[in-house]
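In the previous chapter we treated chains in isolation. Here, by contrast, the input contains two separate entities that must be folded as one system, with a combined length of 841 residues.
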Amino acid sequence: MLTVQHLTKRYPNHTAVDEVSFSVREGETLVLLGTSGCGKTTTLKMINRLIEPTAGRVDLNGTDIRRQNVHDLRRTIGYVIQETGLFPHYTIAQNIAVVPQLLGWADQRIRQRTAELLAMLHLPEASLHQYPDQLSGGQRQRVGLARALAADPPVVLMDEPLGALDPVTRASIRREFRHLDALRQKTIVMVTHDVQEAFELGDRVCLMDKGRIQQIGTPKELLLRPANDFVRRFFDDQRLTLQLQTVTLQDLLPLLATYQPMPSDTLLLPPDTSVSDALKAMAEGQTAAVQLADVVGPLTSQNLLSAFGQWRQSPPS
Amino acid sequence: MNDFLTFISEQAGKLAEQTLIHLGLTGLSLLIALLVGLPLGILITRYNRAATLVLGIAGVLQTVPSIALLGFLIPVLGIGVWPAIVALFLYALLPIIRNTYVGIREVSSTLKEAALGMGMTDWQVLTRVELPLALPVIFAGVRTAAVINVGVATLAAYIAAGGLGEFIFGGIALNNVNMILAGAIPAALLAVLVDAGLARLQRLRLARFRRAALLFGLLLPVLSAFYLIPKASQTKLLAGFAHEFIGRADGYPGLVKTYGLNVSTRLLDQNLMYEAIHRKQVDIISGYSTDGRLKAYNLRVLTDDKNSFPPYYAAPLVRQVTLQNHPELQSVLDLLAGKLTDSVMTGLNYRVDYLHQLPEQVAIDFLKQTRLWSEKAPGSRTGQLVVGSKIFSEQYILAEIIRHLVEGHTRLQVITKTGLGGTKLCFDALRAGAIDLYPEYIGTGLLVILQPNQATLDSLKGNPEAVYQYVAREFRKRYALNWLPPLGFNNTYALVMRDQQAGVLGIRTISELKGYLKSERAKE
């Protein structure tokens, strides 16, 4: 459990972070979202004390982080940064081993853990003795993640972790990250300016502007119940895409006709499937169904899209 | 070419020793510069405000001319190894500090933040991330420093620290090309080899390079140890002689022949010599009998009781063509004949060297005192006379005296070209017509330029009048150059001691010095 209370950072000429408070549950991913200069990165760096706050406090599992030795603190918090921050003069194995070594692990244990991480992140074994510049961008990003996870820290901070990748690699690594068990159990605070990324990876999203929190909540809450004009305008450009991603079959169930009989080999989709994922799952012309308790909704691309269209006309408030 | 090879093979032992000393000087100073510069460079990356100051100071030190730096260091550190090492150390400092600073500053801030964020301490960030990544840049600085030091180390010979400079400056002083090359070629080779060797190190792959750099660091003290080669045992009194004095037949070798003198000697630059004896770094120097500093530092000239030093009476040396073109010139210059005695000249030199008066002012005062002064006549000038001089105070004063005398008494425009490097330079300029006249010494004319055979020398020995007649005749015949009547003083070599010490030891003549040294050796 990570709690941030009234966190404030003032510089001589401006206030970078102004009275920011939030808490992140164990195993939850909170995304700090906003344009550059909104204070999201400063907030993140105050959590591992790379930046010391002017006022406010950060508690980790009920203890003020300032009461702990700063180096010990940082060794228990995984840190993934933009451009990966891999050390060019270290091999991949040495890069991954940085924190375990700082913690004084035995060589044997470090080797074992490195092998584990390599397998988990689908990195070739040969890469162990290579240098970062010999790897592709996507591979480097995975090594950056492996390095952050090496000592199995309960909390991981990520600062624009995918910022340096091209859109295609970015989407595939994002999907990979989302399905990584090792990450699911972690308490994660991630900074990004990419709305798609925030919605896809965040359990909750904290939208910031000018150092202040504009709204904090689940992606759906931000989309459907914006707290103010800033929040509403922020998503305007990508509203349709975001809705396709956030609206689930369960939301549409009342709008789907329920009279048609279902063939026995019907593809059954879980109720929390997003509209876009459901559309992707159904091949051209195929039918599927969604079932919640005893209500069954038959699906075709056509009726799904028409239900989604109706939903958009009068979204629940 | 053959001469050169013969010289090398004859001097092989000394050459090897000087090369090792050269390497030792370079290595030791580089080591100290590393020990100081590296931490300093690191420190100023932490305290940015100090960076400008430290780099500024190191930069200023770098621009101080090497000979001036050595001059500053003598009062503090004396002569010999230490001032040389300190000077070299100061020159090596800037490239090392600057490259350490820049190298560390240029390590990407993302990487430093990543290292900190993972929980490295400042020291760990420095040793595991910053230094390894800055190493190529730092090493480039070391390489620059090493090459600078190999070059500057030649100047160590000015202050009796040895090295290849002994050949170079000895050769320049004696106008011996083979000797110059015997120092210059190894020095240049050394610089190229050191640079190439370090460059090779730098091209190694990072991991191996780090090991090699470490090895180089460990090797430096070994290299430095060359300096500890045992020195020959010393006599009670220590002499500091100029390169020229040691090498010339009429200098130290003449003393050995005439008096059987045997004294431990250090090679010193002739301008630093006086400072060195004044600071009691040496006890005997090879001075000049009219040097103003004799008076300033209260030094005693030992009487040359066996006439070992040849006469060095000064006289204007003029092109015959010039005298023909300007017939009025000779009678004007003759006005100076005999007017400048030893004590007058020493006094004039003293005013320039020690009281720091301008040569021109001293010259005008002299002319007024001797009633030779005449105001420069107004109106246009009918011709031009170019007066040269060598590069020491006495010659500057003489050039100014001649200029004002000639401009006062004729309608000639006089231009001075002062500070010509040495005898050879002045003489060549005169023959080529680049200058019309310059003050020269008859001993120099005899031994440096005419170089007669031993029989002729023996017949002239010790007789100023005979030497003057011979030199004047030969110059007219061979070079169409005229020696005018001598000015009066005899600026010859002189063995010089501190008056106080010489008084205590009861030494007035070179024979007495020889006797003292002999009795001391007997005691040991």
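The domain at 2-244 of chain A is CATH 3.40.50.300 (Rossmann fold). The mean pLDDT of chain A is 85. Compare these points with the single-chain example from earlier in the chapter.
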